[in-house]
Amino acid sequence: MAFGEVISSARKQQGLSQKDLAARIRKEDGEPISPQYLNDLERNRRNPPSQHLLKQFASELRLSEDYLYFLARQLPDDVFEDTHEPERVQAAFTAFRKTLKEG
Questions:
Q1: pTM of whole model > 0.85?
Q2: Closest CA to 22 of 36, 43, 3, 8
Q3: What was the pLDDT predicted at 16?
Q4: Mean of all residue pLDDT scores within the chain
């Protein structure tokens, strides 16, 4: 499933209109996103949003932040908190791929 499809499906499961959800998601300046922007996201007409917005979507729609990061093809900031050796990064990605293949 694509990012927008997951957002749309979760929104509908929560019984929210696009207008209702858009009013709950705030940009960095404190203003809500527009229903049109949300519509474009749900239809995959825009790239997935910033981490600031991703966290709010996860909270409002009761979705895993990590899953939304995955769908958005992003990594959360906490992954970059420390400097990691290349071998550790490679081992982490190898384990990640293995886990996904096993599922």
A1: yes
A2: 36
A3: 98
A4: 95
| Residue whose entry in the numeric block shows the structure tokens 């960095």 | 28
Tell the residue number behind the tokens 């899953």, with chain if given: 67
The two tokens of residue 51 are 């981490």
Taking the CA atoms of 19, 21, 26 and 27 in sequence, report the sign of the dihedral they define: negative
Three-state secondary structure call for residue 32: strand
Q: Which of the 8 DSSP states describes residue 66?
A: H
Helix extents (H) in the chain: 3-13, 18-24, 35-42, 51-61, 65-72, 86-102
**Residue 68: how many CB atoms within 10 A of its CB?**
24
3-state secondary structure of 26: strand
DSSP class of residue 31 equals: P
According to the model, what pLDDT value does residue 80 have?
86
Beta strands (DSSP E) in the chain are none
Residues of the chain with pLDDT under 50: none
Q: What is the CATH number of domain 3-77?
A: 1.10.260.40
pLDDT at 49: 95
